[in-house]
Every structure is written in structure tokens, then in C-alpha cells.
UniProtKB/TrEMBL annotation, chain A:
Residues 186-269 form the CbbQ/NirQ/NorQ C-terminal domain. The keyword Lyase does not apply. Keywords: ATP-binding, Nucleotide-binding. This is CbbQ/NirQ/NorQ/GpvN family protein. InterPro entries: ATPase_dyneun-rel_AAA, CbbQ/NirQ/NorQ/GpvN, CbbQ_C, P-loop_NTPase. Residues 39-173 form the ATPase dynein-related AAA domain. It comes from Methylopila jiangsuensis. The keyword ATP-binding applies. Belongs to the CbbQ/NirQ/NorQ/GpvN family. GO terms for molecular function: ATP binding; ATP hydrolysis activity.
Automatic annotation (TrEMBL), chain B:
Signal peptide: none annotated. Residues 574-760 form the VWFA domain. This is VWFA domain-containing protein. PROSITE patterns: VWFA. It comes from the Bacteria.
Length: 277, 760
């Protein structure tokens, strides 16, 4: 039996500083949590910078980053690892979580609620005083590398009543709350990420606010920072503003005709010249 | 040659002869007949007269009576360019009406015809007219006479086609209620007038309400309070919006606006009204002249619009197209004011008039202090004087604010003593905050709803109470123990209500059926899932294959199910839907009661579940003390959700109290008895449990919580959809409480939630 420890992980050490514009005290909080090796939960709506923040923190703390996007079919084996068949016998192959545990990486489990609860419990022994990952199949208990840390993201939106983390899972984490930043900061981010002028970025952020006003009233979520950046990039690439808004925001965000018409009108009202949507 | 000429057996003139013979001795019609024949002979050939006579004979045979015949003959004589065939068709139509609705109704129709013909230019248009009337005579004969008396108004709205569809709509809207029907066809019902005003097919307030609310909320972050604005009595709907307090009332319809411009017009009106609400303040009228009142309003409009444009620059483009006044218009005070209004909004507008220029200058000079609400009064006062000195006549009563999208500006003033004719308009506006029966959106007539059995909190004698179906314990909070056999659940009869009205209400919700159909489709197809450890499949299941290989090598018996397949996960779920119908569900939210919306939500959900093929039962409950927890069985697991079930749902009435725990225990027991992988109870309730024999509602909250916990332990998931009010996680637990804050969203929400819950 051999262990194919993750040569590919080295590649996950982030060399260049990922741009992250701090919004509050999240950097200090995370750094403090990391110093105590506490598991962290990033709460917030989609596209508000959670992933970017973890990348930034991994760079800042000089730790490799292992990211896993959770989905409904994610099994415990997908996280922890499994035996594979080789000509000479079976070979154990570490899953991304095990690799991060051995190597002392930061492991980021994105949208953890999506995974089934029996999958989620594999992180329990890692996130309490034990700090170890049992590999039942292999009969091994992998103690966490002293630098290992686990971060998860969690969108307490619309579906929280239906899909939710177990209480015993939630209570293992310290939480950092994220939301779309205030307009001036968000405009700065849009400007920087899309390389557009301040006026356009400001206008787009205002468009975002219009849609966020409809959160919970037909729209599950308003336009994210990510969407605004997409719109800005389209404009930068030569698309007219109205077409960019349509493609990057209006069409993706809802299929309901009433809602789309109302949002289009509100967006047109908040833009300087009547952009026809 | 005429198509329906007399048949071969009857020689030309036979019908005519028969007609004259039959009516020969009748003093009441003889004269009218001769007069008609004299006219017709002068105009038509013998064949044509024969066609006409055959029609008239039909009327005779229908026993329409002398007065009807005379009316028909007079009509025939006076109708100038009419063809014989068209007049014969009239006779046939009148005969049909007489047969179903009696001769008085037929007479009313025939007497209305001379005027009606102005709007019914040809035989085609007339066919609509008769189809409508004959249908009405057949289905609701008492509506014919009132409709005939108002036929001109209905025809004015859009001729024959509008007439026929008006009849159809009236029959639909009034259901079985005779009183409502008469009111409708006599155009006394506001719904009837609204229908006429929109007969051209243009959108009205009702159609756009949701979009407007969303638009307003997207702009300012709060949903505007909106209501439709109705004319008083028979008066047509006012054409200017009106604000009362926080309530923005918009005309039910803007007449004469091209359909494509209607939605932007409503948006312009809403945005203007919101600008008043955000930036305006009421002022005392005090001593001020009429012109100054109007001018102050005009400046205030410009002021709040300018401020709104600072925040939302695109609003200017929403408003400017409605300003059409320009130099060269007649020099009257209102015209000049309309030009000033335009000049203050539209920087590209040019107007050489001295007054307009002065207004523009004063307003521009005030640019730095636009947020001062007293500004309007100051500038308005000055400009009002100016117009006064120009000796232009001005009549405040006849004055209408221009342009169309602006409101009547009544809300600007605190009248010391409201001028009479406007006082009741204000009254009415305030009134609109309280919904009237017409505003119910379930289409059910409120006047004749049968008083429900469960609706009265009268004491019930032992034999009147329904049969006992179960007895349950209840939690005694003080003692910290269960009281065994404490509550008695009884079967209550579920009366039938108007299934068609419920159906119609369901149809009326925009885009709703599509949304639900989509959910069902998603559920039916099921999420394509990767199934593991399958005997066959497209791919190896690595974990299973490795396990099998290891088993082989260690000499164990391998499990041969080593494939992955993609397939549907079977939906194996059983659900009891539990509706709270206690007294509090009588509360109105918007135009409808909580119960009505609950009913709609359950109807939609049940439809969807039925379509998805899921097992479910529907129960409603209310209680009157621990001995009488009533359970209404609207649909059992074994039944289909059919029209009867719809009717039982439509027949629910609010009343009595909420002993939630007992109802939950019973629903849980019912679903437990069904074989399914996943078992759900979904309770729709609008508040905290309570009952007449329990002093502290917290006792019942705790009992319901215990009931929920015990069900959960037994594998039944209980979810509470809590309506309005504060979401209370106390009973169902935070994660299983689904607060629906906006009641209007409930119908769409509940189905969405169910399909998420039932996902495996
Ligand atoms: N504070 C920020 N600093 C820099 N960039 C940001 C910030 N917030 C958002 N962004 C930008 O928004 C984009 C989306 O953010 P990110 O992918 O981190 O969202 P997320 O919260 O992880 O979303 P999801 O929950 O959908 O995964 C990023 O690519 C980045 O360009
Ligand atoms: Mg106004």
C-alpha cells in the first residue's frame, strides 16, 4: 500500500497577492482564528467575496489552499480518499481534505450545506479538540498538521429553513459575516476588478442596490458584486451599457416577466441616460 | 338570390300570408304590421319580404307577445338600409330570448335595438350582440332586462365583440349570485364598470399592480402602498392619481392611452407620487387664492421631481414624454401652467413666454435649497400673482393637474375645512385602506356566502358535535407531565363551496400556474442522481469496485453491485397538509382574508402534488375547547384531488380557536400509518395556538412543541408555515419554521417549499 501524497498541492501555494478590499475587521478576525487554529465559517450571500477572501488569507498566512466545492453527491470518500486498483494491488488515494490535513493547508469547503449531512460529519473530529481525521477504510487516524485549518462557507439565504447544517456542525465554527460592501467600497472593487472608470462602477453599484431592494420579494438574492463586475467587464469589452446590464444581470437573475420588467424599469431610472433594457 | 329563401314547398308569399292571417284580428299589432309591410314593400322584392316574414313568424311562434311583435315591426319599418336577412336574424334572436327569459326581456331588448344599431353596423357585429344576449337569457335570464337598458354603454366600449365578452365576463364574475348579477348587468357593480373601461384591451391598474409595487420597491427600498382609484357612483374613474397618507391611489384605467404607453404611464405616476412621499410635506392652506393653490402645487411637483431626479437621473426620461404643452397653445391659465410644468422638468424645452421664463429663472435660482418644502409656496405665490395680473380666467374646480401622470395634489394641503366635493374624495381615499368586499381576490361573492357550520362560536350540544375519531394526551406545562386522553378530535363535515370561483382565483394569479408546472416537471423528472452500488450502470462505482476487489483478494464473497448508474431517485413521500382555519384567519391582509390566501395556496400545492403523483391528505382544523377539536377532511390519502376536494376547500370558513397540538398529533398519526420513506406534516398557521378553555396560550405552545418533537422522534418531519406576524420558532423549531411575511407570496411559496422539502 502506498500513499500518493499530494504533489499537486504545492501548486496551491499562492504566490501573488490576490486583491482583496477589506470591508471590516475580517482580516484580523481570521488571522486571530487561524492563530488559534479555530475552524471558521464565512457567512454571506453569493458573490460577495468569500472565496476571494480565503485566497487572500491563504496568501497572507503563507499556507497552501485546498478548495472543495460541495454538492449534493459529494461523499465522505470524495473528501477523505479512497482505494484505487493498480496492477500490483490496491492504492490508497488521499482525498483533498486528507491531503490538506497532512500537509498543513487551509481547506476551504465552499457551500457546505449542499453536501449531505452524512458527508458533513467527517469534518467533526477535525474541528474539535481531537484535530485528527479518521480514515475508516484504511484504518488510519491522520493527525492534523499543526498548520492545518478548516474554513467553510455558508449562505444563510432563502433555503436555510430547508437545508441547514446540523447544530453540532455549526457550533464548531467561529463565524465571520459577509455582505455586499457599502456603495463606495463596492464601486472601488468593481473599478479595480473590471478596470473601469469610477463613474461607471458607481452607476453599476447603484443598479445592484435596486435589485437588492427586491431581495425576498420575488428575488431570492439581489445582484452580487460578481454580477456587477461581469457587467463592467462587458462594457469594457465594448458592449453598450444596456446590453451589458441585460446579459450580466437582468437575464440571469430572474425568469419572471413581471419582475424583470419592474427591475429593468428601476434600473433605467437609476441610470443617467435612459438605457433601454 | 338570397340564401335562406323560402323552401320549395312554400311558394313565395306563403310566410307573408301566414303572418298576416295570424295577426289579422289583433288590434295591438295589426297596425304596426301594416305600416312595416308598406315600408318594406317599397324597398324590397317579394323574395326579400318573404325572408323577413319567415323571421317574424318565428317570433310569433315563440309567444313573444303583442308588444314584442309591435316593437319588432317598428324596428323593421324604421331600419333604413337593413337587409331582410339581418332583420330576420334579429327576429330569431328575439324569439330565442323570449323563449328563455320571457317576453318582457325580449321586449326590453327590441326596444334597445334602434339605439344599439348605431354601434352594430353589420350583420357580423349583430351576431355578437345576439350571441351575448341569448347566452345570458339561457344562463341567467334575470340579467337580460338590466343589460338591455344599459346596452348603449356596453356597446360604446367596443361594439359587438365587447358586448359578447362583457356578458361572458359578467357570468363568470358573479357566479351564482342573483343580486350581484343584476348589479353587474345594470353596471352598478364597480367590477362591471372597470371591465368596460378596459374593454379596449389596454392594461389597467390591477394588471400592473404587482409590477408597480416591485418597481417602487426597487427604487426606494420599501414597497409602496397602492390601491385602485374608482369613480364614485356611476362616474368614470378619475384620471389623476391621488395620495392619502402613505396610500397611493392610481386610476383603474387611463383612458385613451395607447396600450404600449400604459405601463410607462403607471410607472411615471407611481414615481411621481413616491417623490411626493419621500420629499414632500403637507402645508396649511390658510388664506391663499385658488391660482396660488394651483401654482404652489405645480412648483411642488417640479421640486419633488427635481430632487427625485438627483437620486435617480433616469426618471427624467420617464416623465418628459408626457409633457406636451408648447408655445402656440391657446393662452389660457391652465395651458400656460402646463408649459411652465414642462419647462421646469425638461431642460431641452424652449419657450419664449415671459411668464414661463420667469418661472424657470425663479426655480433655477432656488436650486441650492430645493429641499425646503416652503419654497413651493413662495415661488407659487409669486407666479400665481403674475398669472392673476395677466387677467386669465382660472377656475380651481375645473382645474386638472397636468400632465396625466401627476396626482391631484390634494395631499399637499391641510384643509382647515375641506371643500365639500373634495371632502368625500379624501374620505374615500382613506377608506381604501380598508378593503371593501369587491376587492377580495377570490372572486367569491361576499354577500351571499352561506354562514358556515364551523363559523359560529355557539355552544354545541353533544349530539350535534361530530363523531369522535381520536383522543390525544396534552402537555400540562404547570405539572410538567402529559394529561392522558385530554383532547377529543372529531370529524367535522366539510361543506362544499364554490370550486369554480377558487379555480378562477387560481387562474388569475399571474404566471403562477407556469411556475407551479415547472416545479412539478422538475419533481417528476426527479433530479438526475448518481446511484451508487448498482448491479449495472454506465460506470464503475470506485468505492464499490475496490471493496469487491479487496473482498476477492482476501477470499471474501464480493458484493457484485459495483456500478454507478444515473437515474431518478424515486420520490417516496407522504404528506398531511394541515390548515388552521380559526377565527384569526378572517383577518384581512390586502384585499383578501388570511383564509382565502391559505385556501389558494393549498389548492395550488395540492394540484402540484397531484400532478407529481405524491401521496397526500389535506385537513383543516379549528377547536372549541378540548372536547371538540374539529378536523375537516378535505382530501384523504386514497382520494384524488378532484373538483369535490376543491369545493370542500372553497367551502372553508373561519371560526373558533387553534388547538394546534391536538391537530398536529392527529395529522402525525395519519401520516404515520402510510408507508413511505419520508413523512411530512406541513401546517399552515397564522399565529399562536389558543383555545377557549386555556388561560395561558403558552400552555398550548408548549403542547404543540412537544407534539412536534415526539413526531420527529417517530420519523415524521413537521414543518410550520407561519403567516404574517412574528415568525415563531417556538413550536416547530427554527429550522422547520418557514415564516412567510408577505401573505401574497404564500401561494407561490408553499409549493416551492414543498418541492424542496420533498426532495430526497
Ligand atoms: N472585498 C472584495 N475585494 C476584492 N474583490 C471582491 C471583494 N468582494 C467581491 N469581490 C469580487 O467579487 C467576485 C466574487 O467574489 P467571490 O467569488 O469571492 O464570492 P463568494 O462570496 O465566494 O461567492 P459564492 O458564495 O457564490 O461562492 C470576486 O471574484 C471578486 O472579483
Ligand atoms: Mg403631484
Amino acid at each position: 500500500m502506498t500513499v500518493d501524497a499530494s504533489a499537486h498541492l504545492a501548486a496551491e501555494l499562492i504566490r501573488d497577492e490576490p486583491y482583496y478590499r477589506p470591508v471590516g475587521d475580517e482580516i484580523d478576525l481570521f488571522a486571530a482564528a487561524y492563530a488559534g487554529r479555530l475552524p471558521v465559517m464565512l457567512k454571506g450571500p453569493t458573490g460577495c467575496g468569500k472565496t476571494r477572501f480565503v485566497e487572500h488569507m491563504a496568501w497572507r498566512l503563507k499556507r497552501p489552499l485546498v478548495t472543495v466545492a460541495a454538492h449534493e453527491d459529494l461523499t465522505a470518500a470524495d473528501l477523505a480518499g479512497r482505494f484505487l486498483l493498480a496492477p500490483e494491488g490496491t492504492v490508497w488515494h488521499d482525498g483533498p481534505l486528507t491531503a490538506a490535513v497532512r500537509l498543513g493547508a487551509i481547506c476551504y469547503l465552499d457551500e457546505i450545506v449542499e453536501a449531505r449531512q452524512d458527508t458533513t460529519v467527517v469534518i467533526h473530529p477535525l474541528t474539535d479538540a481531537r484535530r485528527a481525521l479518521p480514515l475508516d477504510k484504511k484504518g488510519e487516524l491522520v493527525p492534523a498538521h499543526p498548520d492545518f485549518q478548516l474554513t467553510i462557507s455558508y449562505n444563510p439565504g432563502y433555503q436555510s429553513a430547508v437545508k441547514d447544517l446540523k447544530e453540532s456542525t455549526k457550533q464548531r465554527f467561529v463565524a465571520i459575516e459577509f455582505d455586499y460592501p457599502e456603495p463606495a467600497i463596492e464601486a472601488e472593487i468593481v473599478m479595480r476588478e473590471a478596470g473601469v472608470a469610477a463613474a461607471l462602477a458607481g452607476g453599476l453599484v447603484d443598479v445592484g442596490l435596486r435589485s437588492r431592494n427586491l431581495r425576498g420579494d420575488g428575488l431570492a438574492e439581489g445582484a452580487s458584486t460578481r454580477m456587477l463586475i461581469h457587467a463592467a467587464k462587458l462594457v469594457r469589452g465594448g458592449a453598450p451599457l444596456d446590453a451589458a446590464l441585460r446579459s450580466a444581470i437582468l437575464l440571469p437573475i430572474t425568469d419572471e416577466p413581471d419582475l424583470r420588467e419592474a427591475l429593468a424599469a428601476a434600473i433605467a431610472a437609476s441610470l443617467p441616460e435612459a438605457a433601454r433594457l | 338570390m338570397i340564401a335562406d329563401a323560402p323552401t320549395l314547398e312554400a311558394p313565395v308569399g306563403a310566410h307573408r300570408a301566414a303572418l298576416t292571417r295570424l295577426l289579422a284580428g289583433r288590434a295591438d299589432v295589426g297596425e304596426a304590421l301594416s305600416a312595416a309591410l308598406a315600408r318594406l314593400d317599397a324597398r324590397w322584392s317579394a323574395e326579400e319580404t318573404e325572408v323577413w316574414a319567415s323571421g317574424a313568424l318565428g317570433l310569433v311562434h315563440a309567444n313573444a307577445g303583442g308588444r314584442c311583435l309591435a316593437a319588432y315591426f317598428r324596428l323593421s319599418a324604421s331600419a333604413r338600409e337593413q337587409e331582410a336577412a339581418a332583420l330576420a336574424a334579429d327576429a330569431r334572436g328575439a324569439a330565442e330570448v323570449a323563449r328563455h327569459a320571457g317576453s318582457a326581456a325580449a321586449l326590453a331588448v327590441l326596444e334597445a335595438m334602434p339605439a344599439a344599431l348605431l354601434r352594430l353596423p353589420d350583420a357580423g357585429a349583430r351576431a355578437f350582440w345576439w350571441r351575448g344576449l341569448v347566452r345570458l337569457a339561457r344562463e341567467a335570464s334575470d340579467g337580460v332586462a338590466p343589460l338591455a337598458a344599459h346596452a348603449h354603454a356596453v356597446l360604446a366600449a367596443g361594439g359587438g365583440p365587447a358586448f359578447e365578452s362583457f356578458v361572458a365576463a359578467g357570468l363568470r364574475a358573479t357566479g351564482g349570485s342573483r343580486a350581484r348579477r343584476t348589479a353587474f348587468f345594470a353596471l352598478e357593480d364597480p367590477a362591471a364598470r372597470r371591465l368596460l373601461e378596459r374593454a379596449g384591451g389596454a392594461l389597467g391598474f390591477e394588471d400592473l399592480e404587482r409590477r408597480l409595487k416591485l418597481f417602487g420597491r426597487a427604487l426606494w427600498g420599501v414597497a409602496p402602498r397602492l390601491a385602485g382609484l374608482e369613480g364614485a357612483g356611476l362616474a368614470p374613474a378619475p384620471q389623476r392619481a391621488s395620495i392619502a397618507g402613505e396610500l397611493i391611489r392610481l386610476p383603474h384605467v387611463y383612458r385613451g392611452v395607447p396600450p404600449a404607453r400604459v405601463p410607462p404611464l403607471y410607472r411615471a405616476a407611481l414615481a411621481h407620487a413616491q417623490a411626493h412621499l419621500v420629499f414632500g410635506r403637507r402645508q396649511k392652506v390658510g388664506k391663499i387664492r385658488p391660482l396660488q393653490i394651483a401654482m404652489t402645487g405645480l412648483i411642488e411637483d417640479a421640486r419633488v421631481e427635481a430632487l427625485a431626479i438627483r437620486r435617480f437621473p433616469g426618471l427624467r426620461a420617464l416623465w418628459t414624454p408626457w409633457h406636451e404643452a408648447r408655445p402656440g397653445d391657446a393662452m389660457t391659465a391652465p395651458m400656460l401652467m402646463a408649459r411652465l410644468a414642462r419647462a421646469l422638468l425638461d431642460p431641452d424645452y424652449e419657450d419664449p413666454d415671459g411668464f414661463v421664463e420667469k418661472g424657470r429663472r425663479l426655480f433655477a435660482e432656488a436650486d441650492g435649497r430645493l429641499d425646503d418644502p416652503l419654497l413651493s409656496r413662495a415661488i407659487g405665490g409669486l407666479l400665481g400673482n403674475d398669472i392673476g395680473q395677466m387677467r386669465l380666467r382660472f377656475d380651481l374646480k375645473a382645474y386638472v393637474v397636468e400632465p396625466l401622470y401627476r396626482d391631484d395634489n390634494l395631499a399637499l394641503w391641510e384643509f382647515d375645512e375641506p371643500p365639500d366635493e373634495r371632502a368625500d374624495e379624501i374620505e374615500q381615499a382613506v377608506d381604501a385602506a380598508r378593503p371593501t368586499p369587491e376587492e377580495r381576490d377570490d372572486g367569491r361573492p361576499s354577500d351571499e356566502a352561506p354562514e358556515p357550520e364551523a363559523g359560529r362560536a355557539r355552544p354545541v350540544s353533544a349530539d350535534e358535535r361530530g363523531p369522535v375519531v381520536a383522543v390525544y394526551p396534552e402537555w400540562d406545562r404547570a405539572a410538567g407531565a402529559e394529561r392522558p386522553g385530554w383532547t377529543t378530535v372529531r370529524d367535522a363535515p366539510a361543506p362544499h363551496g364554490d370550486a369554480a370561483a377558487l379555480e378562477a382565483a387560481l387562474q388569475r394569479r399571474h404566471g403562477f400556474s407556469e411556475r407551479i408546472a415547472r416545479l412539478v416537471k422538475g419533481a417528476r423528472i426527479g433530479k438526475a442522481a448518481r446511484l451508487r452500488r448498482q448491479p449495472e450502470g454506465f460506470d464503475l462505482d470506485l468505492d464499490a469496485a475496490v471493496d469487491a476487489a479487496i473482498a476477492l483478494r482476501t477470499g471474501d464473497l464480493p458484493d457484485e453491485r459495483i456500478h454507478r448508474a444515473s437515474g431518478k431517485r424515486a420520490r417516496d413521500v407522504a404528506t398531511v397538509i394541515l390548515l388552521d382555519i380559526s377565527e384569526s384567519t378572517r383577518d384581512r391582509v390586502g384585499g383578501a382574508t388570511v383564509l382565502e390566501i391559505e385556501t389558494l395556496a393549498v389548492a395550488a400545492l395540492a394540484r402540484a402534488m397531484e400532478a407529481a403523483g405524491d401521496a397526500f391528505a389535506v385537513r383543516a382544523f379549528a377547536s372549541c375547547g378540548r372536547d371538540d377539536v374539529r378536523l375537516f377532511r378535505l382530501k384523504d390519502f386514497a382520494d384524488r384531488f378532484d373538483r369535490d376536494a376543491m369545493a370542500r376547500l372553497a367551502g372553508l370558513r373561519s371560526g373558533l380557536s387553534t388547538r394546534l397540538g391536538a391537530a398536529l398529533r392527529h395529522a402525525g398519526a395519519e401520516v404515520e400509518a402510510v408507508r413511505a420513506h419520508r413523512k411530512l406534516v406541513i401546517a399552515l398557521t397564522d399565529g399562536e395556538p389558543s383555545d377557549i378553555d386555556v388561560a395561558d396560550p403558552l400552555d398550548l405552545v408548549e403542547d404543540a412543541r412537544r407534539a412536534t418533537l415526539s413526531l420527529r422522534r417517530r420519523g415524521v418531519d413537521v414543518f410550520g408555515v407561519t403567516l404574517g406576524g412574528a415568525p415563531s420558532g417556538a413550536v416547530f423549531g427554527r429550522a422547520n419554521t418557514i415564516p412567510v411575511k408577505k401573505l401574497e407570496e404564500l401561494p407561490a411559496r408553499v409549493s416551492e417549499l414543498y418541492f424542496r422539502l420533498a426532495r430526497l
